Each structure stands twice: as structure tokens, then as C-alpha cells.
Amino acid sequence: MRELVYYVAVSLDGYIAGPDGQFDAFLMEGDHMGDLVRYADALPTAAAEHLGVAQPGTRFDTVLMGWNTYAVGLDGPGGTSPYRHLRQIVFSGSRRAQAENLVVTDADPVDVVRELKQEPGADIWLCGGGRLAGQLVDEVDRLVIKRHPVLFGAGIPLFAAGAYQPGTFDVVDIRTFDSGVAVVEYARRR
């Protein structure tokens, strides 16, 4: 069965973005950047093309985003379809967009994920944001946390507060880098 994988950068104090949605404090240079190839399917399509990185679609074939996460890339090279190599599902109750391989829906994220998990294919990438992650926390099978040595002090938390069940995850892999970034992969204990 397909897994829902929350693959995301986070500050030492647990934020995926600052108070105004900024994420420019995350380290964009350093020895940890080579590790991105391990999750090449999670690179924006235009960035992967620019870097000459192949995106085989074997790790992820679907990406889930809240509207604010999706909106970050609207002015970038990918425009309205930042991950056009993947099926992109954006959750919004009021906004709409049309682009290649993009669906904007107001459906219940839990119902959507449960349906996706029953389909054949590669894993499903939960890109963000914190509110969507809070809604889907009980459906997350694997966490891949890129912990950066920065503090935001406030902002968008890894998981928004919610009425989810306590859960335990086991460490599957830890990779540390001279840049200070640590990538820790967890699998939900069943």
C-alpha cells in the first residue's frame, strides 16, 4: 500500500516557516544539498530541469499541499504547476486554479488520502503546510524531517494543533551534515 510521507524542512524550534510564511532562513547551501537527490521527486520540476536532476516518479507520484504552500511558487519558474511531473492536489475551500496535473479541491483531506492510499502507485508526498499536516497527522505513515540549525521563534508549526491521536514513530535513518542539517526519517509504529 502507498504511504503518506511528510517530507519537510523544520527549524530547531519546530517551525516549517516563520511568522509571515518566510522560509529563507533555511540553509540553501551546504553539504546537505546533495541529499536532495535522494528525494528528487520532491524538487520543483523547473528546479530539477535546471539542475539536470532526473525525476523518475519512483519515490512520489502525488503531492499534497494547502493553498498557502502552493501559493509560494506561483511567481516562480513553475508558475501554477510547480510539480508538474507529479499529480498535485491542493486543498482550499475558496480558491481555484487550473494547471497541468493540478487539482484544487475542498474535499476532506483525510478522505482524499485514504482513497489515494488504495490506488496503485508510488508514495504520496505531504509537502505542507502545518494546518494540512495537522489534519492529516493520523494518516502520516512516514516523516522525513530536514532539521535546520536555525530558530524562527514563531511561525507555522510542523503540525498545527488539533484533535489527533498520540502516535509513536520509530527512527529508520539519520543523516547528519557538516552544515548542521540533520535529516531524520521516522516510520509510524503500528
UniProtKB/TrEMBL annotation:
<dbReference type="GO" id="GO:0008703">
    <property type="term" value="F:5-amino-6-(5-phosphoribosylamino)uracil reductase activity"/>
</dbReference>
<dbReference type="GO" id="GO:0009231">
    <property type="term" value="P:riboflavin biosynthetic process"/>
</dbReference>
<dbReference type="InterPro" id="IPR002734">
    <property type="entry name" value="RibDG_C"/>
</dbReference>
<dbReference type="InterPro" id="IPR050765">
    <property type="entry name" value="Riboflavin_Biosynth_HTPR"/>
</dbReference>
<feature type="domain" description="Bacterial bifunctional deaminase-reductase C-terminal">
    <location>
        <begin position="4"/>
        <end position="182"/>
    </location>
</feature>
<protein>
    <submittedName>
        <fullName>Dihydrofolate reductase</fullName>
    </submittedName>
</protein>
<dbReference type="InterPro" id="IPR024072">
    <property type="entry name" value="DHFR-like_dom_sf"/>
</dbReference>
<dbReference type="Pfam" id="PF01872">
    <property type="entry name" value="RibD_C"/>
</dbReference>
